[in-house]
Amino acid sequence: MTDLRFNVAQFLREHVGARRQYDFDEPALPLSDELLLAPLRGHAKFTRTKNGVLVAAQAEGKVRQVCGRCLIEYDEQIRAEFEEEFFSTVHVTLGTPLPKPEENDVFLIDENHLLDLGEAIREYALLALPIAPVCSDICQGLCPLCGTNRNENPCECVDQTVDERMAILKRLLNQD
Ligand SMILES: [Zn+2]
Ligand SMILES: [Zn+2]
Q1: How far is it, in rounded angstroms, from Cα 5 to Cα 122?
Q2: pLDDT tens digits, one per residue of 57-78
Q3: Over the stretch 154-166, which tens digit does the pLDDT of each residue have?
Q4: Distance from the alpha carbon of residue 39 to the mean position of ligand 1, in angstroms
Q5: 122 CA distance to ligand 1 centroid (A)?
Q6: Where are the domains of the chain?
């Protein structure tokens, strides 16, 4: 399973403004108990800041989703793009704990100077998931009458309703 944790111990010894770039290409990143971003690839730029590392990253991958119209599973292409500062929690040369950033919800570099890029990608990929997944814009969905997947088989139901309307119309006309 993916390990997108970067050891930034060396990088944190560099001056503020120092940069580094990484490409990554991983088989899979779990997003939740059921969801997997797989495969995923992307690019990250690290910039040393006063408090830690500013990460600008883009990641792309596929997530298995169930179409809300035809109920069939398909792969949704997800793109996560973000810029986040990861804060050091331990001083890189002194080894002493650093004050926690005031905001909650910030990304932290752990006491072993590991920056978990996977955690940030996970959060942003979840945000990028569609609220109403659809396998394709032209998905015809299931027939509400017979349940047939209209993408695979046109069912007779539509024609029947038309026929019924025609029959009613004919009856109405014949009444005259
Ligand atoms: Zn569909
Ligand atoms: Zn039908």
Answers
A1: 13
A2: 999 999 999 999 999 999 999 9
A3: 888 866 666 677 7
A4: 22
A5: 25
A6: 5-139, 142-176
